[in-house]
Structure formats: C-alpha cells, structure tokens
Automatic annotation (TrEMBL):
One family name in Pfam for this protein: Bac_rhamnosid_N
Record flagged with keyword Repeat: no
Keywords: Hydrolase, Signal
Keyword tRNA processing listed: no
A molecular function (GO) term: hydrolase activity
Domain Alpha-L-rhamnosidase six-hairpin glycosidase span(s) in chain numbering: 465-791
Protein name as catalogued: alpha-L-rhamnosidase
Organism taxonomic ancestry: Bacteria, Pseudomonadati, Bacteroidota, Bacteroidia, Bacteroidales
Entry EC number(s): 3.2.1.40
Length: 884
C-alpha cells in the first residue's frame, strides 16, 4: 500500500508497500461473469445478450490489456480453449462489457462461456466457465394454449389447476416455461417450484406479458407426475375498489395461463407437456385474493394433495381456452421478488382472549405467517398497519384513505383465516403484500397465541447489495439503514411510492431516488423492465402517465416534467453507473418524442407542466422554474445521447434547445446582482444549482445564498420533494459542504434526522410527524439522502466521460463534527472504497481503486496542498492537512 502525503503543496511518495510488485502469473483472474446482469440465467430471449466480467487483481495499476470471449454448446470444448458458437478473438481493449456477436442463438439451448484476459504485463488468465440458457425466443415456439376456469372477473375464489402425465423414460433434464395473466404458484408432485413471489411482474398486460423459466429436472420422475397451478388476481383482475381505478384497467379479466414443460430424456428425445383442455380446475381454500388489500383463506375447504398424482379429481371441472393477453410474451429476466428476510416478533400484547397485537419493531413491506388452532369455523383476522391507537390497537387510518370498499367484506390490509378445527392451521398470503410494523390478530372465538405464532417476512425485489456506509455518527448510520429499508419496501419489480396505501409506480419517486438506488443496489434489471413499461405506456404524442404501469389513471394535467422525466433521467443514470448505453438507446426515440412534445407546447422554453415541489415544509416554489429546469435536464440528456449515437442533426438541434431553455430560465428567474432565483426559497436556489442551470461564475454566489437560507432556518429544511432531491448536492458540490452536513444530521423538525430521532425505521411521506394528510410511514420520495452520503461525504462520482466508474471522480468532504466515514460501492470494475478519519488537524484518507479503473482525487476547500491527485488501480493512503 503506497502512502501519499499532501502537506503545504508538496506531494511526497513514500515507498511503503504491502503488495508484491513482482508479477506472478495467475494474479489476475476474470470473475463475476454475468449474462444481461444475471448469473447463469435460464430462459434468455435476447438474441444478443450482454456479457460482462471484472478482474480480481489487487496489484497496483492492475488492468486488462486484452480479452477473448468464447461461447459454445460443449463445456469440454471450452476447457480445451474452443468456442464452437463464437470466438471473439483477442481484442486489445480494456472493455469488460460486450455484446454477443456469434452465430444465431437457438431456442431451448444451453450455452457455456468463458473469458480469457491479458493483464498489464501481457500474461493471460482464464475465468471459470459460466452458462446461459435460451428460452422461447419467440411466440411461435409455444405449444401450450392459454387456459382458464371459465369464471368471470367477479368470481372471488382463486382457480386451482392440475394435470397428470406419464414420463415413460429416464429424465435427463426438464424445464417449465409458464406465462400468466395474473399471479401464480407452480407445483410438481406436491412440491412448490422456486422461491419467487408475486410472479410474473406487473406489466401493461395487454401490451407485454412475462413468462418465467424453471429447472424442474429434480421434480420430474419416471412414471406418473402431477402438475399443479394456483392462480391469483394480482394487478390483472383487480377486484378491490380504490381511487386509482385499478378495477377499470382495459386488460382486466379472469386470470389465465399458458405453460410448456419441456422434458429431455436420456436417449435425447424430447416431450412437451403443455396446457390444453385436458387439464382440470376447481376452487379451493383461497376464497379471495387482492394484491391491494389482503387474502381470505378458508382452511375447511383445503383439498389435501390437490397437486399430487394420486389425488382424486373426479369432482373437478374442465378448463376453457382463453385469448392470448398480448402478442408480446417475453422472458422475465429480472431479479425476482422474494421473501428476503425473516423477522421475528419483538413484543406481543394480549388485550383479551380474542385480541392480540404483535410488534415487529420495524416498518416493512411483506407478509406474515400465522400458526393457530381453534374451533372449526372460527374467523381469525390479521390487520396490518404502521401505527397504533392510544388503546394499543392497530390504526390504519393513515394508509386506507384511498380504499373504496363497497361493503365490509374486503377490509384494508386485513387477512382472514377460517379455521378448520383439525389441529393447527397455517396461513400466509400468497398473492398479496402489505406495508406494516404492527399486526392485530382478532377472532370471533377465543384463541391462544404466543410470540412464535406469527412471523413476518420482508418481501421485495431481491436485488444484490452494492454499497455500504459506516460512520462515527450513529444518526447517519441509522438514516442510511432506514433509507434502504424504505427503498426495498418499495421495489416490487418496479419502484413504488408506498407498499400499503397505493403501491403505485409514481415516476417522480422513482427518479428522485435513482442515485440512492444505484449506489446501494444492483437494480439494473428492475429499471430496464420499468423503462420498458414506460415505452408501453407512452402516448404517440410523447406524453407519459405519472404512475407506471397504469390501468388508465395518471394522464391528468400534472403528469409533467418533474415527474415523468424518468424516461430520460433513469436511462442516463444507468449509463453513468454501469457504462451500458443499451437502455439509453432503447429509450432514445421515446425521450425524443417526449422532449418534442414539450417543445411544441412550450415554444418560449419555459413550462409549468408538472406537479411542483410536492409536500413542502412551508414555502412554495415557482412551478414554472422547477418544471423548466427538468425540461432542460431531459433535453440535455437527449443531446448527449444523440452525440453518443452519432446523430449529428439531433445533437445540434437539442444542444441549441437546451441552451435556449437555460437562457430562458436565467433571464426570467435569476437576479444576477444578488445571485437569487425567484423568491429565493431553498428549492428555488437548490434546483438550478443541482441541475447545471446556474452560470459558472455565479455558482458560489447562489450557493452562498442557499447556505444563508439554511442557516437562517436553523439548519432545517424548507423544501418538498424537488428541493429534497437537490439541496444537499447543491450545497456540497458548490463549496458549502459544512452547511450540507449540518442539514443532513439535523435531528429536529423539519429534517430527515427528526424521523429517526422519533423512532422511524423507514422514510416518511411528510416532514411533519403530526400531519393529517400525505402521512404514509414508508415512502421513498425524500430518499436522495441515501445517495448523498456516497457523494457529499464519500465523494464517489462516476465520470461522464468514462462512465461505469471506468474512471472515478473522488470529491470527498470532511465536515467538522464527523470523525470517521467509510463508503464502499461495488462498481462494474470492482469495489471502490472511500474512507477517511480525522486526526486532530489532519485527515487520513484511504482509497481503493478497483482493477482496470483509475481515479482522480480533488481536494476540498478546507485542505491544504495539492488540489488534484491521479490514482491508479490499487490501495492508496493520502494524508491531508486541514486549513486552520
């Protein structure tokens, strides 16, 4: 480890090292191979999948000078160094993300692949062999029919389906491909297949449907086999009533499915068992299911063994054909939703023999599992909520405000279990999730419960964690944890606003939190899916709804730029964090249509189309100012993308348009003498700073005015969602890091820390703990602070000129009052660490730059000495002297 000392303008290189500088073959190895950001995926439909890797090489200056990718159908040939499907040849480049360019991929085929790399000394090393397996790769390859139970959309009991078949030979391999309009659970010979929940993911069902692939080789046995499928409504057949008009969705219908089970026998022959009219169907114990409210389960109606071969289905009915929901059935190549964490009860209060209240001591999205015995016919209700009344019972009044029940049969977030009277019954919702901390269990007959009777499961898209924060300030640590809890609670195959009251894919919430998301989690597959939803929902004129997906709600008067800029901002951030331009390319024409629409309707360059600074503390900002800034942001992204994709005319046109918008904003709103935008409130000062509107020569002046506003407020916030996104960045990136830090760690109202100081374990929807509206306790729209820790304190930024952290910009800040800070982020090249410790008037700053990457350190204003230091791959220590 080399130590760099910055003192009085001199840079001293101290020849201390803990790494051998002798080049040893094998020190460099390609690792973490992925296909379209998944490890060894099944059911790949992409004819040109992206292949990526990183280098495991801790030597200083480690880098790749060349690569060779080989793909083949025979793993033994790859071991021997031959790829019969594609051999890229030796490419003299540092690239670690490439697109498959070999012979055409065929459906239902397993491909093996490996990477050879050459390090900085020209020494070759090889990866382990990975694989990917193609799926349908086209609608024409399905053999099954879409079937249903012949019931209408208002029939409440869930449909169960089954089929028995014979496997006459020994099985080599078997795959199940299942496409569902609605939700499902799949069983083979009584065993549930997979650990996903809420599959398939929510899409615009009449324009795109997902299928999921499973390896079911262990479950298929020679001889008789049974397949069982249970379908849920999900967002496809929304039976609960709410203001969002879910029940009016144009695709709404009774759930249906199509499935092929493709069996390859040891002799090489192939048999496909598919959905046809020879399947049977019945109702059962799941008598009601709503993804929005809850599930009702009557254990007296259970048909034991319904998904096994020996079950007597003579009383079951025939199935019927159903039309294909859309002509675009594609593979779900997305990190799945799972029950990721099991959370035990923290405290239990028994109010009487029929009422118990369980506290899990943290807010979450998920489900609960109850085990309970009682008299046959006893109705047990499990009411899930975030708050308690003064009498200790669960209060859902802050989250049920948009529920519009027609009667008392569908209470909000309240599961119902009817006991069988045959010993212990067990129930957990299959096709629903809730937002809660507390669960009130009531019954119409006495029951006995204890702390082990109820278990909670934190359910969310199971995205790998990519970042961690640890500091000497307990409030920061807790706030970072709560932010992540809120983010994960609101990631269900698309980002949502809250996991209880709405479950809507609000576009604004999605892009306000995008940097927090990408610093902390590997969410690219979820965002690629969600931006495909955007493309499905966009009107021909370019307009987008402000909730996506939507059954029709959201094309109102305010679905404008500050919200629906997701179409540009998220693809751009994916490009910044991953160095992958595919999503930006996929959305290019959509961004262009969107910007063109605003250009047509706002010829001056100024627009008021948007929702404005939602849920402000007290001061209101000009909607024309903030909406116009987002118009500039989208146009600038479009111009940058046009340049990248060699669209010269577009680049020239949209660059000029961006300049026009910026000038129009500054001409109307900026007082160049005072350095104040608009009326000078926090949001009006911070939004132009955050998004590059402020002229370079006035940035410090505008930032100083913003800092004065914050200081005058006692280092408290006076912003809504747009200001919350901008304010910390606007301060810390423009010479006011001390003010940004004091604002970030404020623990009295109004502030982020106020929530934590009052016991919050997630982020809230309102700064005011006593607010009477906008009062969800698990919301993500104020979540930018979780990304700011990496930027404003750790100083880790992607370089727009070398995205994906190929080159890292390090701009840390060392505010007084914070003694230790550590941020780690797993970039596409490996882990970046930015870690510092205060030692009297010095900072010891430790940096890890991953192999095949470089970095530039920029010293903050309160540090003496060299302002800029170039860093190669490896570990570095910089000793920095603080100004007095």
């Amino acid at each position: 480890m080399k130590r760099l000392t910055l003192v009085s303008g001199l840079l001293f290189l101290m020849l201390q090292t803990t790494f051998s500088q002798v080049q040893v073959p094998g020190n460099c190895k390609p690792v973490n191979l992925a296909c379209d950001y998944l490890v060894n995926p099944l059911g790949v439909d992409n004819p040109a999948p992206r292949l990526s890797w990183m280098l495991n090489d801790t030597r200083r200056g480690a880098r790749q000078t060349a690569y060779q990718v080989m793909v083949g159908k025979d793993s033994l040939q790859l071991v021997a160094g031959k790829g019969d499907t594609w051999d890229s040849g030796k490419k003299n480049t540092e690239e670690i993300l490439i697109t498959y360019s070999g012979e055409g991929l065929t459906p239902f085929t397993k491909y093996y692949w490996k990477v050879n790399v050459w390090d900085q000394d020209g020494i070759q090393s090889s990866s382990d062999i990975n694989c990917f397996e193609t799926g349908m790769m086209g609608m024409e390859n399905w053999q099954g029919a879409w079937i249903g139970d012949n019931r209408d959309i208002n029939y409440q009991p869930a449909p169960y389906f089954r089929k028995v078949f014979d496997a006459k030979k020994s099985v080599r391999s078997a795959r199940a491909y299942i496409a569902v309009a609605g939700l499902y659970e799949l069983y083979i010979n009584g065993e549930k297949i997979g650990n996903h929940r809420l599959d398939p993911l929510y899409t615009r069902f009449d324009r795109r449907n997902f299928y999921v692939t499973y390896d079911v080789t262990p479950q298929i046995q020679k001889g008789r086999n049974a397949i069982g499928v249970l379908l849920g409504n999900g967002w496809y057949n929304h039976q609960s009533m709410a203001v969002w008009d879910f029940h009016r969705a144009p695709w709404r219908n009774r759930p249906a499915f199509c499935m092929d089970v493709r069996i390859t026998y040891e002799d090489g022959s192939v048999e496909v068992v598919s959905t046809e009219r020879d399947w049977k169907t019945s109702s059962g114990a799941l008598v009601f299911n709503s993804i929005y409210t809850a599930e009702h389960y009557d254990a007296r109606l259970e048909q034991k063994g319904w998904n096994t071969a020996d079950f007597d289905d003579s009383q079951w009915s025939g199935v019927g054909y159903r039309a294909v929901p859309s002509l675009n059935v594609v593979s779900q190549q997305v990190q799945p939703i799972r029950a990721v964490e099991t959370i035990p009860v923290k405290t239990l209060k028994k109010l009487n023999d029929t009422t118990y209240v369980f506290d899990f001591a943290r807010n979450m999205a998920g489900v609960t599992r109850i085990k309970v015995s009682g008299e046959e016919g006893t109705v047990v209700r499990l009411k899930h909520g975030e708050r308690l009344y003064d009498n200790g019972r669960v209060n859902t009044s802050n989250i049920d405000v948009y529920h519009r029940p027609v009667d008392n049969s569908d209470p909000f977030q309240t599961d119902m279990l009817v006991l069988s009277g045959k010993g212990e019954d067990e129930f957990m919702a299959r096709f629903n999730y809730k937002g809660f901390r507390y669960v009130e269990v009531t019954s119409n007959n006495p029951i006995v419960l204890n702390e082990n009777s109820l278990t909670a499961y934190f359910v969310h898209s199971d995205v790998p964690q990519k970042g961690t924060i640890h500091t000497s300030n307990a409030l920061i640590n807790r706030l970072w944890w709560a932010t992540n809890n809120a983010y994960l609670s609101n990631l269900m195959g698309y980002p949502t606003d809250c996991p209880q009251r709405e479950k809507n894919g609000w576009t604004g919430d999605g892009h306000f939190a995008i940097e927090t998301a990408l610093y902390n989690y590997d969410g690219i597959t979820v965002y690629e899916k969600w931006l495909a939803d955007h493309r499905d929902e966009q009107q021909p004129n370019g307009v987008l709804p402000d909730i996506i997906p939507t059954g029709g709600w959201g094309y109102g008067t305010d679905n404008g730029l500050d919200w629906t800029s997701t179409i540009a901002i998220i693809p751009w951030n994916i490009y910044m964090f991953y160095g992958d331009s595919k999503l930006l390319a996929d959305c290019y024409e959509n961004i262009k249509r969107y910007v063109d629409y605003v250009d047509r309707t706002s010829p001056t360059g100024l627009t008021s189309w948007g929702r404005g600074d939602w849920v402000p503390v007290k001061s209101h900002s000009s909607k024309e100012l903030t909406s116009s800034v987002y118009f500039y942001v989208d146009t600038k992204i479009l111009a940058n993308a046009a340049k990248m994709f060699n669209k010269t005319e577009d680049y020239e046109y949209y660059s000029a348009l961006a300049d026009k918008i910026k000038n129009a904003i500054n001409d109307k709103f900026l007082n160049r003498e005072t350095g104040i935008y608009g009326s000078g409130v926090q949001t009006e000062q911070s939004v132009p700073l955050q998004w590059g509107i402020v002229p370079e020569e006035l940035k410090r002046k505008v930032a100083r005015n913003l800092a004065k506003q914050v200081e005058a407020a006692g280092f408290h916030l006076d912003v809504g969602v747009l200001g919350a996104k901008a304010i910390l960045n606007a301060l810390s990136e423009n010479g006011e890091a001390e003010t940004a830090y004091k604002l970030a760690v404020q623990d009295t109202y109004p502030s982020w820390g106020c929530w934590i100081a009052n016991g919050a374990t997630t982020l809230l929807e309102n700064w005011d703990l006593n607010a009477t509206r906008d009062i969800s306790d698990n919301h993500m729209m104020f979540g930018e602070i979780g990304g700011w820790f990496y930027k404003g304190l750790g100083g880790i930024f992607p370089d727009p000129e070398n995205p994906g952290f190929k080159h890292i910009l390090l701009r840390p800040n060392f505010p007084s009052g914070l003694n230790q800070f550590e941020a780690r982020h797993q970039s596409p090249y490996g882990e970046i660490c930015s870690k510092w410790e205060r030692k009297k008037n010095r900072i010891v700053y430790q940096v890890t730059v991953p192999a095949n990457s470089t970095a530039t350190f920029y010293a903050p204003d309160n540090v003496e000495g060299e302002r800029v230091v170039k860093l190669e791959a490896g570990e570095h220590v910089l000793e920095l002297k603080l100004k007095r």
